[in-house]
Structures are given as structure tokens and as C-alpha cells.
Amino acid sequence: MDRPVISPELSLGAACTATPGRFRPARLLPGTLLSVTIGSAALSFSAAEQHVYGTGYAEPLIVAILAGALIASVRPPSDRYAAGIDFSAKYLLELAIVLLGCSFTATALMAIRPALLAGIVAIVILSILLGFGMARLLGLPPRLAILIACGNAICGNSAIMSVAPVVGARGAEISAAVAFTAVFGIATVMGLPLLGAALHLAPIDFGILAGLTVYAVPQVLAAAAPMGQIAVQSGTLVKLVRVLMLGPVCLILSLAMMALNRRERPVRWRHSDVAGLVPWFILGFLAMLGVRSCGLVPLFLLRPIGDASTMLAAASMAALGLRTDLRAVTGAGGRTIVAVCLSFLLLCALALALIHILPASV
């Protein structure tokens, strides 16, 4: 059987340039349903694991993308699924990012001292720049390098998913970055308490370390919990600042990509180009954050919105898996692992340096 048009070489932006009629509802339904089904199964697996063991060891987004890739490698979806899978990988992902904005408020930033806030911002910027540089020195493609750098510096899978459509990353690059970054997410949660004990860090300092190095907010809670409530609180606040860096980083990358494209293909500036400066989902993310910060979102809606964002993200990851060739992911494994390792060690070093420079108070 020939490999269908679903391919890791297809960028997330390809859906926008599809032929007319490609995304009619009838064409979208099969692939979208398949993606949602796999994503739902991944979330159900995670929920069952939580119920049985009291904690979740497998990140549902990772389960979704691996399940999709496994299905694609065993029995690739036929052409009739292609439009829906492409749609899910792009638009469901972008909608998930918009809804993610409701999970945060700007109010918590007022509780963080300016010196610590500046330190967090500086670490994120340095981690991205140095991480990208190291990955490029190792010979990784530019888009994969920026995905790894942003994933390590900001918030793991969420950062990778947000940055990917901005830089036009390919499916295989996204899959590789998500998979290898997830390994360090799990390792960090398990190993960070041991590091904190070995370094005799105070609870508030350990919380800052967790907030600066752990990828996901739930993982910060899990990593900081052994050191007590103070560690959890400081870790959560620091992590929030890192997550809020996602919007500005995507904006800067969007401007950089536009400048690069204009340099390669010079054109006259048009007012209509302003709309293309910032991806719509980043504006949506910031708008939702602002609405939530103003108290316009009822509290009882926060959990359903969060669940919807998670479901959409899981379906999108499943779609990425469905159009990914596992051979392309494993083929670039060695250098990717080294790049992720070096980026993570750099982040840890910068975090510990900040802790020693600043007084122990949030």
C-alpha cells in the first residue's frame, strides 16, 4: 500500500494553502473523528492511571502522539482521512492554545518581586538563545532547534505546540521535540527533589528551581510537593511567569519569520500585512488571559474550558502522530537527545545561579 498524502513533510501551515473544497465538512469528518477518538483514548488512559495508581506517569499528549504514530506506522490512514487529520493538527491545536489563555491571570504577577521577575525573563531568553545555538551546532534543523529551545525554556509541550505553527515546523520535527522533551519532563519530576535535598535548598528556593525547570504546571506541583506548601506556592508563581512568556516569544518569532521571508522574497509593505504579523491564536490567547484577569469568566466555567483545551490539544497531537513517520523521528534521535540534554542542563545551571544571586523571597 502506498503511503498516503499524510506526511511528516507537510507543515502545519499547509492546511491554509490547500486546494479549494479540501476542507468541506464532509471531507473533514473522517480524519477529525479519528483524531478526536485517539485523543480521547489517551485522556481516558491517563485518567485510569490516575485512578489506579493515584498519579499520572504518562503525559496524555505524549500518549496521543505516540498512539497516532503507531497507528500510522502499522496501517497508514487512507486519503479520505487526510483533510480531517490536517485540519485537526492545525486548527484544533490553535483553538486549544486560545482556550489555554483562560487558565492564567495577570494578577499573580503582582506577588512577584521585580528582581525575581526580571531574572525569570532573562533566564527564559538566555535559555532560548543558547539552547538554539547549541542545537544548531549539533547540526539540528533550525525549526527543530527552536522547538527544543522553547520547549525547555518555557513550558515543554505547550510551548512546542504554540511555537510550531509560528515557525512552520514539520510534523516529524514536532513529534521529535515533544517526545524527547517529555522524557526530561518525567525525569525532572522524579529527580528534582533529590537534587534539592543534595543542595540543601530552602523550600522557597526549591520552589523557584522547580518553577524554572519543570515543564508543566501539574508537574511543578508534583516536584515541589515533597518540600512543602511554600515550595509549591513559589514554584507555581515562577512557573506562571514562564508560561506568560509564551505570548511574547511567539510574537517575536512571528516578526522574525516575517522579516526572514521578506528578505528572501522582497515585497512592498502593505497595510493588509499587519494582520499577518501575529498569529490569530496568540492574540486569542492574550485576549482570553485579559478577560480572565478582568474577572469576566465565571469560576464554574474554568474547569470545562480547561478540559476542552486539553481535549483539543490531545486530538491535535493524535493528528500529528497520524501524519508522522516514526522512522523519520528515530532517525534523528541521537543529536536530538544531546540537544535536549544540553538545553536542560543549561536551564538548571541558570536557575541555580539566579537562586544564589537573589535573596530567598518571592
From TrEMBL:
Lineage: superkingdom: Bacteria
Membrane-spanning segments: 28-48, 54-72, 92-112, 118-138, 145-168, 174-199, 206-228, 240-260, 280-302, 308-324, 336-358
Pfam families per record: Cons_hypoth698
Keywords from the named record: Cell membrane, Membrane, Transmembrane, Transmembrane helix
UniProt membrane topology term: Multi-pass membrane protein
Name of the protein described by the UniProt record: Putative sulfate exporter family transporter
InterPro entries referenced in this protein's UniProt entry, alphabetically: UPF0324_pro
Species: Sphingobium amiense
Location(s) in or outside the cell: Cell membrane
Similarity section: Belongs to the UPF0324 family.
Keyword Nucleotide-binding: no
GO CC, any one term: plasma membrane
